[in-house]
Specification:
Helices cover 60% and strands 10% of the residues. By secondary structure, the protein is mainly alpha-helical. It has a three-stranded mixed sheet. Strand 1 and strand 2 form a beta hairpin.
Amino acid sequence: MHSHSIENWSHEHVFLGAQHSQNERKVWIVVGLTVTMMVVEITGGTLFGSLALVADGWHMSTHAAALTISAAAYLYARRHAQDERFAFGTGKFGDLAAFTSAIVLAMVALLIGYESIMRLLAPVPIAFGEAIAIAALGLIVNVTSAWLLGDDHHHADHHGPGHDEDHDHHHTRDHNLRAAYIHVIADAATSVLAILALSAAGLFGWTFMDPIVGLVGTIVILSWAYGLVRAAGSVLLDIVPDTKLAHAVRERLERDGDRIADLHIWRVGPGHNAAIVSVVSDHPKPAAEYREQIAFLPGLNHITVQVEECSHASAAG
């Protein structure tokens, strides 16, 4: 008899982002574009004896690897969304992929920095026309990729770690899509900087501009990687995603002498937060009543309420 009624109380633990399938498709398309560009550059460079082309192809391979991690995370999270082994679903897979991508991005930036310093110390001859053509081709692919990924409504604030201080909307962001977007934007930025530096070197003989611009690119990309590590890492470490949401929960439940003894809010997926609340009361109401008072709060999708009776008036203090 009870086995039938339990269905009214049980629920799924699917906490994928609202645009999960759409974002997955977009990232796979970008992976295809990046891998194609990589193969064309490495093959062309090998056939025509161009070290610059081969080097840029291998540089693209690191971004292709990071983008593949993002796409694979979407795929795995979707396929295992109903897997009961994951206590709170697979919504955090994107954050794990984003964190990994950020580490790869930082490594790429450090490699660019190292190469730039080596070129400052020991300048090498540059085939300007060929190098500019490679950078222009890479820029076209990256701008196309950024356009595909960049219509996400949060993309405007991807350009620095400072924005990660704002927790009031970060719980809705898909960090996996953000990671893929930053990879193509970083590559586009290095292409633009390379074109400018090579043009200056070719026109005015300023060969030092190429490594200098490389160092500037290193600093910029490292700052983006740092911001992404902080944003994704805060989700993986269950840092409170939205301080306003925590305040709203307290405001709704701490009434008529009721007090919250324990409150945990954490993100379980893009736009999805879970909460565990322990309420102490002299005149406790059923847990369902407390749950109903906060169930309508936006972004709160999994709520567990524990009610403890306190017979002493001290709780009112």
